[in-house]
Amino acid sequence: MNDRTLITYYSFTGNTESVANEIQALTGYDSAAIVEKRERKKDSMPLSALTAMLGLRSRLKPMDFKLLGYDRIILGCQVWAWHTTPPINSFISKADWRGKKVFLFITKGDDKVPQKVIDSISSRIRARGGDVVDTLSITTILGSVITPDIFREELRTWLTSNGLL
């Protein structure tokens, strides 16, 4: 397959980055972190959750929002208070999703699948011309960064079933 694939993600606590790094290690795909212009303080989670609940957006450091040269995007998102994060809100609204196949992975702190978040992200990407092909929801461990041995087989199965591995 000649499709070029980009892994892009926002990670505040390190869990989403851990999954993205494992995808990159397994596949060799290009990877780019979504980074806020102003670094969020680690003790600001209550305020951060509120900004997510309000649907706010963050200012992001410059990156390729046109996603030039990529046919498939693996997008990694955290869930805050059952909502998308402000950096992901900004990225979704700025990125050129036209003609892109998107594979979404979500990291969250409990066992429930955040379907409302998945539906919200999917509908916004579709409204901008992208196609969300599949999603994976990974439960993390609060207070520590999840290690690949916890999710590797589930991730490998997901990547394989979607022709990404």
Structure description:
- This protein is of the alpha/beta class.
- Helix content is 35%, strand content 22%.
- It is built from 5 helices and 6 strands.
- Helix 1 packs across helix 5 (148-161).
- The longest helix is centred in the last third of the chain and has 14 residues, at 148-161.
- The chain is globular, with a radius of gyration of 15 Å.
- The N and C termini lie close together (11 Å).
Tag the structure with descriptive keywords.
6 strands, 165 residues, 6-stranded mixed β-sheet, 5 helices, alpha/beta, Rossmann fold, globular, single chain
Outline of the structure:
Residues 5-114 form the Flavodoxin-like domain. With 165 residues, this protein is α/β, with parallel strands linked by helices.
List the SSEs and their pairings.
Layout: E1 5-9, H1 15-27, E2 30-33, H2 45-53, E3 72-80, E4 83-84, H3 86-94, E5 101-108, H4 115-127, E6 131-139, H5 148-161
Parallel strand pairs: 1-2, 1-3, 3-5, 5-6
Antiparallel strand pairs: 3-4
Helix pairs in contact: 1-5
